[in-house]
Design a protein that fits this description.
The chain has 21 helices and 13 strands. The protein is an alpha/beta fold and 530 residues long.
């Protein structure tokens, strides 16, 4: 292998992932994602095949590659500055922003580097020398396992899924309802990988190179045609209901001390939505940062409002019980009663709603421990807690919940006919890229579960999304308004809801089987020689 290629292998990987990260940031050019990873694959082929490079150096090259990928994606941490709303001065704000931006990128890169170590181990066994086409398939499978691993634990923040870059191209995303978001990410990877393989092998075997390009075209076009067919498919008649998402655009600093103003704004807008025909009205996450079960003024206000307007009202507030605090959704019925069913946020935000490893963080980075806007850590909910209504069951998600696909899947599996997603990006991100990427996560959850999804944000984005990811209503950030539309109460169950992340486990099995088969073949050859 030419030494020149070995020297440019790592830069090629870095360029590839950086360009790809930009397509996630600017989804208007998301179509480029189908080729931006070609340098990454070419670099990885050379980098891991270098016999002089040991496992440790291979790991650090992989670590750096994944770090750069997430460093570009997480650039929206800069929009946090300054953190005066959290009571931090400028110096402390810089510490928190840098710690968040670099720290979170490092946390994703630590397991990410293992992809390259495993690929290197497979290279050492000579698997790819005998069957080169397995290289792009194996690396694609390893990336998928890594992408899935970013949903695990508090350090896992799955913000870098490749499929997010396809939010402007809905037909591409429809197959997530079959095999999940990782399947679309795999398609992006394998298309890039096959094209890289074609470039890599063109001089020696032109026929195989042409065949690889043909396969890449077939994979991409087949997925698009499947998506178009799925979007045009007509389903059975369904129960419909008018739903409104209220976006009051109340300044976050006012929320803590302007309860009267909040009641006025959301009261007036709820009445406006009811007059326009809304049956269900959804308010944003923790629109009242108080324990509503302990706050008689709030309880009486929402009960009287729901009864006066004749609507089912979904309210975000806090809940306290048995020395535990929760970020909660309350349902208030048209007869003025608060449902006994309460949805507690299942995945609170680290450093926003609780501080993981609090004592250690307070010792090492005190400003980071002070970032939470709440005095006490919030506890995670454990149940899907579906709201029963005359139209069907309503599933709840609260903001950060929506980036973890298993939570929506659990709600759909338990029988949710419609998903509600109160959110609040106003504390930190407002009009940053994060807000738009959060909206894309909601689109993915709607498609995967085959459910309409209603997103209500304090300062936006608020939207009503169909089961195919289309927007029936949409409100831009930092605007005041009502996103309202007729939605369908879906009853069908998507394949993904049934089987979950089976595709991810298949990728794991493929890599393990690849290694196991090679070990078996090598041992068999040795026995035959004896």
């Amino acid at each position: 292998m030419c030494e020149r290629y070995k020297k440019i292998a790592l830069p090629a990987m870095l360029i590839g992932v950086a360009l790809t990260a930009l397509t996630l940031t600017f989804p208007k050019v998301g179509f480029l994602e189908w080729i931006t990873l070609i340098p990454f694959f070419l670099g990885a082929f050379v980098y891991c095949a270098d016999k002089k490079r040991g496992l440790w150096r291979t790991y650090w090259g992989g670590f750096l590659t994944v770090f750069v990928y997430y460093f570009v994606i997480y650039h929206w941490f800069l929009s946090l500055y300054p953190l005066d709303f959290a009571g931090l001065d400028n110096q402390s704000s810089v510490v928190v922003v840098v710690a968040g931006w670099i720290g979170l990128s490092v946390l994703q890169a630590l397991p990410g580097g293992l992809m390259f170590v495993i690929l290197k181990l497979l290279e050492r066994r000579g698997i790819f020398e005998r069957t080169p086409i397995l290289r792009p398939i194996a690396l694609s499978a390893l990336w998928i396992v890594f992408e899935w691993s970013s949903t695990l634990g508090w350090t896992g923040v799955p913000w870098g899924r490749l499929c997010i870059g396809q939010s402007e191209y809905l037909p591409v995303l429809q197959s997530t309802s079959l095999l999940g978001p990782y399947f679309v990410s795999f398609l992006i990877l394998i298309v890039n990988g096959l094209l890289a393989y074609a470039i890599f092998s063109y001089r020696s075997t032109k026929f195989k190179a042409i065949l690889a390009v043909f396969m890449a075209v077939v994979i991409l076009s087949s997925n698009i045609l499947l998506g178009i067919e799925m979007m045009n498919k007509k389903d059975e008649e369904r129960i419909t209901v008018q739903v409104a998402a209220i976006q009051g655009n109340v300044d976050m600093d006012a929320k803590g001390g302007a309860i009267v103003e909040l009641m006025r704004v959301y009261g007036e807008m709820t009445k406006e939505a009811a007059d326009a025909g809304a049956d269900i009205v959804v308010w944003p996450e923790s629109i009242f940062p108080y324990y509503m079960n302990r706050h008689s003024l709030l309880k009486n206000f929402v009960k009287d409002l729901a009864k006066e307007c004749g609507v089912t009202l979904i309210v975000g507030a806090l809940y306290e019980e048995d020395d535990k605090d929760y970020n909660t959704l309350y349902m208030v019925t048209p007869d003025g009663e608060i449902s006994d069913t309460l949805y507690h946020k299942r995945h609170p935000v680290p450093f926003g709603e609780y501080v993981p490893m609090r004592e250690l963080i307070m010792t090492l980075i005190p400003p980071l421990a002070e970032l939470s806007a709440l005095e006490d850590d919030l506890s995670p909910g454990t149940e899907t807690a579906l709201f029963e209504t005359e139209w069907g069951k309503l599933g709840g998600l609260i903001c950060f919940d929506s980036i973890y696909e298993e939570l929506t899947r659990a709600s759909a599996k338990d029988g949710a006919n419609l998903m509600l997603l109160p959110s609040n990006d106003s504390w930190w991100f407002s009009t940053s890229v994060e807000t738009y990427q959060n909206e894309t996560q909601a689109m993915l959850r709607a498609i995967e579960s085959g459910r309409y999804l209603v997103r209500a944000g304090n300062t936006g984005i608020s939207s009503i999304i169909t089961e195919h990811g289309e927007h029936k209503a949409w409100l831009a950030p930092e605007t005041k308004g009502i996103a309202m539309s007729e939605v369908e109460m879906c009853t069908h169950t998507t394949l993904y809801t049934r089987i979950g992340n089976l595709f991810v486990y298949s990728c794991m099995a493929f890599v393990l089987l690849l290694y196991a088969i090679d070990v078996f073949l090598v041992r068999s050859k040795k026995k035959n020689k004896i």
